[in-house]
Design brief:
Elements (H helix, E strand, L loop, with lengths): L2 H30 L3 H9 L3 H28 L14 H21 L4 H28 L3
Length: 145
């Protein structure tokens, strides 16, 4: 298998995982604690199309973002990264932390009432994109399929 295709596969695995976590969490929030605007709109029209399209777009968006991050992870891997480790690329992990801080500051400002949910999503983001994705890239590039 070609090298770029292996990186795409690693990115798609990470993106699918983050997409499943995000869409599931979003669905649970919308079912058990829907926003006031969504409640008002649900009375007026059918919001199932809106929820379905937002889930599809967010799932595909996470996959595209993960593929880009997989290529970034591969380009920033150190020369001796042929074995799995907790952090194959410290520079990549720093970039993930920077992106997390850059995204989470406005998120905590806009979603003040959902801080615990945001914290869970941010920890999931760091776990998947910071630790799992670089190790997936290394593992898939080492495999012989």
């Amino acid at each position: 298998m070609e090298e770029p295709l292996r990186t795409v596969i690693a990115g798609m695995i990470g993106g699918a995982l983050m997409g499943m976590v995000f869409v599931t969490h979003l669905a649970l929030l919308l079912v058990f604690n829907p926003p006031r605007v969504l409640k008002e709109r649900a009375v007026e029209s059918n919001v199932s199309t809106l929820i379905t399209m937002s889930a599809l777009v967010s799932f595909l968006g996470w996959n595209v973002f993960a593929i880009v991050m997989a290529f970034a992870s591969q380009s920033l891997l150190s020369g001796d990264s042929s074995q799995l480790s907790i952090v194959p690329s410290p520079i990549y992990l720093f970039i993930v932390f920077f992106v997390t801080v850059f995204i989470s500051i406005p998120a905590f400002i806009f979603f003040r009432d959902r801080k615990s949910h945001l914290l869970g999503e941010i920890l999931g983001f760091i776990a998947i994109f910071g630790f799992l994705l670089p190790n997936l890239v290394v593992a898939i590039h080492r495999s012989n399929f």
